[in-house]
Amino acid sequence: MKEKAFVQGFDTNLEARHRKGLLWRVVFQASTIVGIVALIALMLNIINSAFGFVAYEAKVDPDTLTVDGTPIQDQSKEQLVARLQSTLSRGAYNKLDKDEPFAERSREEVYQLVIERIVRPQVVEVWNLWSSLTQADEIRAAVARDHPGAELEFVSWLTHDFVSRPQTSEPLTAGVRTAILGSLWTILFTILLAFPIGVGAAIYLEEYASDNWLNRIIQTNINNLAGVPSIVYGILGLAIFVRTLEPLTSGAVFGLVDPTTANGRTVLSAGLTLGLLVLPIIIINAQEAIRAVPHSLRNASYGVGATKWQTVWSHVLPNAMPGILTGTILAVSRAIGETAPLVVVGASTAISFDPNSPFSKFTTLPIQIYQWTSRPQDEFRSLAAASILVLLILLLSLNASAVLLRNRFARRF
Amino acid sequence: MAELTLKNVEKKASTMSLRRKPRWGETIIQALLFFSGFFSIFTTLGIVYELGKEALLFFQMPEVNFLSTLTTTEWKPHIGKFGIWPLLNATLMTTLIAMAIAIPLGMAVAIYLSEYAKPRVRLTLKPILEVLAGIPTIVYGYFALTFMTPLLREIFGKDVVQIYNTGSAGLVMGILILPLITSMTEDALSAVPRSLREAAYGVGGTKLEVALQIVVPAALSGIAAAIIVGLSRAIGETMIVAVAAGAGPNFTFSPFVGAETITGHIVRISGGDLSYDSIDYNSIFALGLFLFVVTLILNIISQAIVRRFREVYE
User: Fold this and answer.
1) Contact A198 B23 (CB under 8 A)
2) What ipTM does this complex have?
């Protein structure tokens, strides 16, 4: 009797337990879906702003610039230069010539200048992709009613020109070439600092270090540094590279006297700061790669009489290299996306000239995104969205190459 | 040709030294490697020294009083008021909102991935998580300002929700930290041996009971470490709050109002041309030192938890 009651109770209880199990299963799945939806929303939101209608008005009608029946877009470089000379003030013209002599500029560049300085198309209003697709007719009607002189055009803010044009203050002609080159220059010095020291430290910790207090401190310290907020590295970079090492980072010790970069807020300072930031990540990844090399390889090398370094150099490193490179690429992609430390180190707010030395002023892609995002106008939001796409494509290809590298060279022992 | 006699061999062996030869190349290389290893110590010392030095200068300034910094609720450098609470309060608010999103969601996703998902689903979802984790934080900042804020304003009304607010920054920060917590928790759950699960199924546990009563407790140290790492990440997160949480310190408990966090303040102050030895310059070092110490303590706690409470299985 008693047994039956127990079984009955068990049966009813079982149903409740299964119901509960099912309920929570749905909760777990829903949470996962929420995460995926967030990612999709993030992407759609960016794409939504990167394309769409834009209405703009020219300050000067391009038709009035026709010379002898040749419209502005077909004129020769000399005609365009003459147009600039006659329209701009003498000071403005001379400044342009001083920045880069007209003789050295290509026709395309001069044409861009004419558009930028004389025609001066100004954005009146922009629409995102969604409303451009769903309310195209309303938008056309609104523009025709409110801005009779404006041109309405469906644009992709991300174009080949956008990537290859320098930064300007005009949304319609702005580009990210300066920022991309700035990012590449910065990353170069990041790698030059962090890769050799990071791999060296990993070799030391895995192959040479004995288990004593000093080496334990070094290891703990590296693990802790990996968790320090990036902005703290920015403050460190400001104190050490920008201020203390100013003669070096401004290039003064190399006899470089450029008043604009004399404050040490240069590509070099930025690169070294990011180098310190990614160093612990590179060390930890390289350590894992070195640890994965089996001991039999080392013992075989010692067995034929190789020294420690010969063993490390010819056997451990070649086998660990794919792992080390994968880890380095991931660390570099982290550095490329960093914004906060570079703001603190002192990225320039507006430069239109490409960095050409370690001692140039700098801006990077994330900094550019930050500045455009901070502007309230919609057209700058669209520019920010387009540069985010550039950044994400860059990072995605880096990550893809890391995965390929891992799959191509990964060895199983 | 020398004959290979016993005598010759003996003679040769007697001239061969079996003592270890000094190899200078090896020694130099080892010294260089040790220097590389030691380099990171310099980084830490540099942080402690530079931040400590300037922070000390900050507290020595006549306008600044250590005690009133900790106790007052106004941060207005131009009139000499340096109460840290408005900044700290905003940091705590965004962190709290972020953790309220990231902990439950992160745990649920991790349990789903580790215990429920089929291998194929897991193999597709894990890379997606890694992609989420690899997106630069400025992109999340853009997302907060151009998507989350309009969404909040749509839901709660434009009069209630300001354009810059800690709520939307906190929510997006939760999305940012979600993959971090998920991936660390999932690692901890996967490390629990199969035999424990089989034993629990053997006495009639349902899938949920096994997951929540056996696997999660067994992985608790790893989960706690994941949460603390997420917390430290949230406190140090900068670009989302710099873009979306608003400029200007504001002591408020409303998530719909703009307020500047510690990190946001550092970015705004140093964004302009900062002159050395000004009070603003020194104040960012004091704030940076505070961030460094807090995150360092959190990281040490998380490592200690993992070391102390880790269940080791055969």
Assistant:
1) no
2) 0.88
Which residues from chain B sit within 8 angstroms of residue A395, using beta carbons?
134-136
CATH of B83-309 among 1.20.1300.10, 1.10.3720.10, 2.60.40.10, 1.10.540.10: 1.10.3720.10
> pLDDT, tens digit, for every residue of B54-67?
888 888 887 777 77
Work out the minimum CA distance from A237 to partner chain B, whole angstroms.
9
Q: Which of A35, A339, A396 sits opposite B239 (nearest CB)?
A: A339
Nearest CA in chain B to A33: B109
Q: Cα distance from A66 to chain B (closest Cα, Å)?
A: 42
- Domain region containing A69: 52-157
Distance from CA of A153 to the nearest CA of B (A): 23
pLDDT of the residue at A261: 61
- A190 and A252 both lie in a single domain: yes
pTM over 0.90: no
| Angle in degrees, CA A228, A234, A236, rounded to 5 | 80
In a domain, A224, yes or no: yes
Across the interface, whether the CB atoms of B139 and A218 are under 8 A apart is answered no
Of all residues in chain A, the percent with pLDDT exceeding 90 is: 33
The residue of B33, B267, B305 whose CB has the most chain A CBs within 10 angstroms, and thus the best one to mutate to test that interface, is B33
Q: Are residues A143 and A248 in the same domain?
A: no
Residues of A within 8 A of B236 (CB-CB) are 228-232
Question: Are residues A217 and A292 located together in one domain of the fold?
Answer: yes
Q: Are A115 and A75 a contacting pair, CB within 8 Å?
A: no
CB contact under 8 A, A229 and B128: no
Q: Are A253 and A386 found together in one domain?
A: yes
Residues A136 and A207 in one domain: no
CATH of the domain at A290: 1.10.3720.10
CB neighbours of residue B172 within 10 Å: 31
Say whether both A151 and A183 belong to one domain. no
Query: Are residue A253 and residue A149 in the same domain, yes or no?
Result: no
Q: How far is A282 from chain B (nearest CA, A)?
A: 12
Name chain B contacts of A392, Cβ cutoff 8 Å: 135, 139
Q: Which of A235, A240, A343 sits opposite B285 (nearest CB)?
A: A235
Torsion, CA B38, CA B40, CA B45, CA B48, rounded to 10:
-160
DSSP B153-189: HHHH-TTTS-SS-HHHHHHHHHHHHHHHHHHHHHHHH
SS3 readout for A48-103: HHHEEEEEEEECCCHHHHCECCECHHHCCHHHHHHHHHHHCCHHHHHHHHHHCCHH
